[in-house]
């Protein structure tokens, strides 16, 4: 199993050392979060991010707004964090309440403080630097996937990778990262409705499922020895009211895989820790400037 919790713990230990070195030079990295509304999973996720900050010595800057907040109020908080020197980088927790111009609001974020790597300028730079080092923030989920594979010695050079899901937080930026010269994978970016999806998956060395449809990928879709990366999440409540997390890949598929991520416990912890890594990298760049 590709245990994201173990890898994330290793990265946190490394981050503590990097943060300590930054503090020796008078710089304390600060992570800001903007949370709008009452979505319970979003609240839990933001809580976990700030707990992670405390573990490695990153300062927390939290801005919570009610569901009744106006778009102008959200943009006002973004301007505040853009101008706050204590905030090294920050995220706008998604999804926003219905009716808000999500894409337009993201454009208000200072690209240099875009800890999620979602600003159009940072996504554009990622697309334009396929053969050069990346000097801008990269999406936390795709970066976490590559780091998890790297730490288990899994090379993607020359491998056929099927990415199912074209979301801006996972599928699309992951396709860009996988096709970089330093990674060297051949990528097929699919949808759940792609014709002949089963055939594409059966011809792949690595399958990344990032749709959010429970057990979209079953054992019948997985070739022997494939690497399985389960990103998508579906939450269901049982008869006792307890919530359960179900991934996009049926665990019955693991028997055919060479490596697989559990869900939860695989990509999720890596996404959170790579957010911390982005903020620390931002602080290191600022110090070196």
In short:
This protein has 289 residues and is α/β, with parallel strands linked by helices. It has helices spanning 4-24, 40-56, 71-83, 102-106, 120-128, 140-151, 171-178, 197-202, 267-288, and strands spanning 30-36, 59-65, 89-92, 160-164, 186-190, 206-209, 226-230, 233-237, 243-247, 257-260.
Describe this structure as you would to a colleague.
It is a single chain. This protein has helices at residues 4-24, 40-56, 71-83, 102-106, 120-128, 140-151, 171-178, 197-202, 267-288; strands at 30-36, 59-65, 89-92, 160-164, 186-190, 206-209, 226-230, 233-237, 243-247, 257-260. 39% of the residues lie in helices and 18% in strands. The strands form three sheets. The chain has a five-stranded parallel sheet with strand order 5-4-6-7-10. The protein has a three-stranded parallel sheet with strand order 2-1-3, sandwiched between helices. It has a two-stranded antiparallel sheet with strand order 8-9. By secondary structure, the chain is of the alpha/beta class. It has nine helices and ten strands. The radius of gyration is 19 Å and the shape is globular. It has two domains: 9-113, Leucine Dehydrogenase, chain A, domain 1 (Rossmann fold, 3-Layer(aba) Sandwich), CATH 3.40.50.10860; 140-265, NAD(P)-binding Rossmann-like Domain (Rossmann fold, 3-Layer(aba) Sandwich).
SSE blueprint and pairings:
Elements: H1 4-24, E1 30-36, H2 40-56, E2 59-65, H3 71-83, E3 89-92, H4 102-106, H5 120-128, H6 140-151, E4 160-164, H7 171-178, E5 186-190, H8 197-202, E6 206-209, E7 226-230, E8 233-237, E9 243-247, E10 257-260, H9 267-288
Parallel strand pairs: 1-2, 1-3, 4-5, 4-6, 6-7, 7-10
Antiparallel strand pairs: 8-9
Helix pairs in contact: 1-9, 2-9, 6-7, 6-9
């Amino acid at each position: 199993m590709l245990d994201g919790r173990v890898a994330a713990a290793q990265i946190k230990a490394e981050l503590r050392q990097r943060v300590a070195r930054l503090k020796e030079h008078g710089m304390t990295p600060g992570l800001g979060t903007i949370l709008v509304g009452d979505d319970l999973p979003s609240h839990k996720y933001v809580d976990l991010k700030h707990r992670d900050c405390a573990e490695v010595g990153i300062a927390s800057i939290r801005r919570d707004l009610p569901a009744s907040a106006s778009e102008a109020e959200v943009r006002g908080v973004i301007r505040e964090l853009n101008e706050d020197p204590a905030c090294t980088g920050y995220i706008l927790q998604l999804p926003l309440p219905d009716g808000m111009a999500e894409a337009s609001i993201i454009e208000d974020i200072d690209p240099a403080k875009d800890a999620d790597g979602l600003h159009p300028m940072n996504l554009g730079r990622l697309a334009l630097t396929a053969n050069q080092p990346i000097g801008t923030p990269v999406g936390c989920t795709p970066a976490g996937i590559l780091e998890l594979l790297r730490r288990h010695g899994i090379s993607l050079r020359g491998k056929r990778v099927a990415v199912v899901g074209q979301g801006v937080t996972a599928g699309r930026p992951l396709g860009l990262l996988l096709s970089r010269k330093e990674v060297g994978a051949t990528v097929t970016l699919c949808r759940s409705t792609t014709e002949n999806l089963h055939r594409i998956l059966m011809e792949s060395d690595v399958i990344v499922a990032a749709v959010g449809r429970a057990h979209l990928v079953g054992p019948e879709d997985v070739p022997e020895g494939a690497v399985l990366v389960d990103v998508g999440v579906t939450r269901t409540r049982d008869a006792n009211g307890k919530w359960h997390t179900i991934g996009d890949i049926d665990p019955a598929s693991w028997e055919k895989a060479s490596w697989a991520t559990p869900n939860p416990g695989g990509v999720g912890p890596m996404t959170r820790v790579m957010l911390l890594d982005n903020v620390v990298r931002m602080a290191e760049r600022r110090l070196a400037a």
